[in-house]
Amino acid sequence: MSSIAREFSPDGKYCAYISQQGKFIVYEVGTGTLHQVYTPNMHLNVPCTCFTWLEVTTDQPAATPKAGKAKKQRNSSAKQLMAAFGTSRGRVAFYSLATGTIERSCQGDGHSAPVTAICFNAAEDPDTLFTAGADGKVIEWSIMQSAQGAVHNIGVEKLSCVLLASSGVIVTGSKQLKLWDRAESRLLRTLVGHTSNTQILRTLATSTTEEQSFALSGSALDRSISMWSLSADGENTPLASFALDDVPEYVSLELVERKMHLVAVSRTGVAHYFMRSLDKLSVKRPYRANHTFQIAVDTATTKTKAVDRLPVFVASVQHSPQPETIMLGYGTEASLRFEPIPIDAELKINVIIREPMKLLGKSKQDSGDLKTKTPIVDANSAEYLNPVNASKKNMKKVEIPMEVRLENLSLLPDRSDTKMVTGRKNMIHLLVQGLHSRDATILRSVFGRNDPEMIQQTVERIPAQYLGALLSEMSYLMQMKTVHVQTAVCWLKQLITVHASQLMALGGSNLMTNFATCLGIIEYRVEHLNSLAKLRGRLGLLIEQADRSKKQSINRNVDENVLVYQEEDDSDVDSVLGTDNEQHGSSNEDIYDGDEQESPEYDDEEQEDPASDAAVSVRKQNGFTQEDEEDGNDSDSEEMEVSD
């Protein structure tokens, strides 16, 4: 269960609870002293998950008769106070308060998962225990025979509480309350009203003539207590609701003349007292507390001005010494005090001022040391010796350089670099200190470094008890920006690599619980990775195509030579044309002169296109003239082609 299991004994003499370390701690209510502390075998992996008080009737032999009287020895019955434990292996064990040990264990297969709740109703069945487990089963156990009884398969969901109501009805709680027929294991009704797992379930039975029974329940996230009717003709909705300032952690109730006296302890350490008549219940709006009780620390003996509170740990209206009082147990798990508090009808908010718990323990210690005498010593002339200076008095003092001191602080920036200077040998101390105190500045200085080698050395030296806190910080970092996510992934990778064996030893369910947040964040971040990869590929193709088109358009604008002509030497032309000039009986000068007179338009062409001078001259030197325009057909036959 999420809250600490705590309960008063049936006679109200003892109050016990299971601490977060799995220890069973028993206090004596009358004196407020610690009675017993039972530590289960942690190396066997069978810690206690829940418990309930029960009184077992045992047969004891009577006193030995006096000599001379032949009387038979008779047996007398006596009640022995015991506690029934539900273990993480799904079994039930009986703890004897007289011997302080486990007296016996129940035989049977038990649950396949840890026991989450245990119930004992002496009025309905004084020889049967009921346990609910995380496997969705309710099992009956015989107290006298120490054996397993009937098994009720409720479902696959994890059960958080169980209760035996009147008329053979079993009430189970998870996110919903369900009523089952004990004989037939048949579902009778489903009570709907809670938003989370039910962690508190109490029954309230009226007189046998009226045959009415009620149940009160509180969930892990609701700041109220709901009241239900368990009668056959009852409704599936709550009859009434009682408002608190926070989530309820403990409930005690008593019925006096059709008036219900209810006291509930919230998570903030405030006790709420309600008194309502069963005939005037309404569900229109939640009822407010008639009285609230808080414990404040007296600041008269301290130098601080801030007022601290001592949280109320447990409260009871059944075991108060007087009718108009309630029994409050306040303090911490390490130290509790029990005190009956009177109820003032005119005062709604009660703030009770008490001395701090540490001062109370110190005063008791001082009162017992009356014979102790402390010598008067002058503080200025006193000389303090330790193993170092006691053996070597003339040793010189070793002064630590200021740079080394600043490096040990590991909170100042380096002058040569902008990164945070943190000695690797001190990183583990800073990390443990930050996880223990949850100091944001220290954690920021540790997680600000993204050096894989430094992270590996730090993770290798971290104690095993801080792995859960480190996982919580990693989950918080992964919810932030990308820079912090990168650092968290690096730390998480080294943590899984180095401490794989310790993480596997937690078991499948605990391992999934610790990594559920990290896995959820990782899956959420990589959910759209495929779509982003496709989008990146398409954008790359579009950008490459645009760049290629731009380059092609630039290349088209560059001027290129359409025709490249290479002129031959004059000697080669003269050698080719020499024979032709002799055959026609004309010289080059005559040809040029004739052309200039008859076709003057060639001059313009020669001036405009100097590259064609050689071609024109070749045609003229071959005897092509336009003198005889009338004999055009004859001139065509006189044209000659010159091949290079």
Molecular structure report:
- With 644 residues, the chain is an alpha+beta fold.
- Among the domains are: 1-59 and 77-159, Methylamine Dehydrogenase, Chain H, CATH 2.130.10; 239-361, no CATH class; 402-525; 570-626, no CATH class.
- The chain is built from 16 helices and 29 strands.
- The strands form seven sheets. Strands 21, 22, 23, 24, 25 and 29 form a six-stranded mixed β-sheet that branches.
- Strand 14 (169-173) and strand 15 (177-181) form a beta hairpin.
- The longest helix has 28 residues, at 529-556.
- 25% of the residues are buried.
The major beta sheet can be summarized as:
6 strands, mixed
Count of β-strands: 29
* Global morphology: globular
Average pLDDT rating: 76
User: How much strand?
Assistant: 25-35%
CATH first level of the domain at 1-59 and 77-159: which class? Answer: Mainly Beta
Tell me which CATH architecture of the domain at 1-59 and 77-159 applies here. 7 Propeller
**Which ranges are low-confidence, i.e. pLDDT below 50, for 5 or more consecutive residues?**
60-76, 359-370, 411-422, 585-644
End-to-end gap? 109 Å
Q: How many helix segments? A: 16
Approximately how much helix is present in the residues?
25-40%
Helix/strand class: alpha+beta
Looking at the chains present, what oligomeric state does this protein adopt? Answer: single chain
Would you tell me which CATH topology of the domain at 1-59 and 77-159 applies? Methylamine Dehydrogenase, Chain H
Over the alpha carbons, how many angstroms does the gyration radius reach?
Answer: 49 Å
What is the CATH homology-level superfamily of the domain at 1-59 and 77-159?
YVTN repeat-like/Quinoprotein amine dehydrogenase
Subcellular location: Nucleus
Domain Small-subunit processome Utp12: 439-542
Family: Belongs to the UTP5 family.
GO biological process, one term: maturation of SSU-rRNA from tricistronic rRNA transcript (SSU-rRNA, 5.8S rRNA, LSU-rRNA)
